Amino acid sequence: MALLLPRIPDVVTDRLAALRSRAGSAVFSRVAGDEGSGRRARILGADGPRWFADDAPIRRVHGDASMFVGGLRALLLQSLHPLAMAGVAGHSGFRGDPWGRLQRTSYFLAATTFGPADEAQRVIEKIRHVHSFVRGTAPDGRAYSASDPHLLRWVHVAEIDSFLAAHDRYGSEPLDPAGRDRYVADTARVARALGVADPPETTAELAEQIDGYRPELRGTPEARDAARFLLLEPPLPLTARVPYGVLAAASVGLLPRWARAPLRLPWFPVTEATAVRAGGTLITAGIRWATSAPPQPAPPMPPVHP
């Protein structure tokens, strides 16, 4: 005998749909900015060949809500390279305009992953032009340049390792080993266009290259200051602090142990395997639910009287 469930009243369904739409719009406006709708049209609505096919692993990873966890992990991991951190502290304006930096990064990822080839190339060329002006001297006296292929590769490997780790843990459809290798190979296409020398093509090469950078990494005061800002002082209203805190905990929980101490971040293996993982699953599911909401129909126009 079939189990009969009570029918959800239409008013409840409508309110849930409206809540979902508002939540999705709020997330989209934070990530994409005021120009988000126009940029989305340029990426998804434009004709022309793409760099990646519809079934490419890079599209599965970069289109998933787990990117919110992976993106924050990437920023923490990247900060451990003193020269990369010096460039961020001196030129990115992450404190004064953190949402602007997030929106520029999200557009770069969207354009190169999903956009037409000409738009992807345009964005790449713009970034390379900006990088040509990002140079200076780190607090330890060493010169840095954002166009340095070695430094570019660190930023790249820290980023894709983070995106992949987050997708493995919190993605809706995690990749199998072959798919993970294909993802790394997909991202190498973008990395070469940016000027990265010898980007990894497999997960084994990715792990090997990250290990190769470890002697260069350390927790500078600038890196610890950035971690404190990202994790504890985000420019968010009070209502968003709790879900963001869950997101931050999930991001820290994915960092390798060797990356924790330099940033003075704790390691609680039991808590991270239980409460933090459950919270990360919940928050990514919530973001996925909100951002996959179908467009709401326009309200009916009032009758026009003669």
TrEMBL record:
InterPro entries: MPAB/Lcp_cat_dom
A Pfam cross-reference name: MPAB_Lcp_cat
Record domain ER-bound oxygenase mpaB/mpaB'/Rubber oxygenase catalytic: where: 59-282
GO MF term set: oxidoreductase activity
PANTHER family with a match to the protein in the record: BLR2777 PROTEIN (PTHR36151), ER-BOUND OXYGENASE MPAB_MPAB'_RUBBER OXYGENASE CATALYTIC DOMAIN-CONTAINING PROTEIN (PTHR36151:SF3)
Annotated protein name in UniProt: Uncharacterized conserved protein, DUF2236 family
Source organism: Pseudonocardia ammonioxydans
Lineage: Bacteria, Bacillati, Actinomycetota, Actinomycetes, Pseudonocardiales
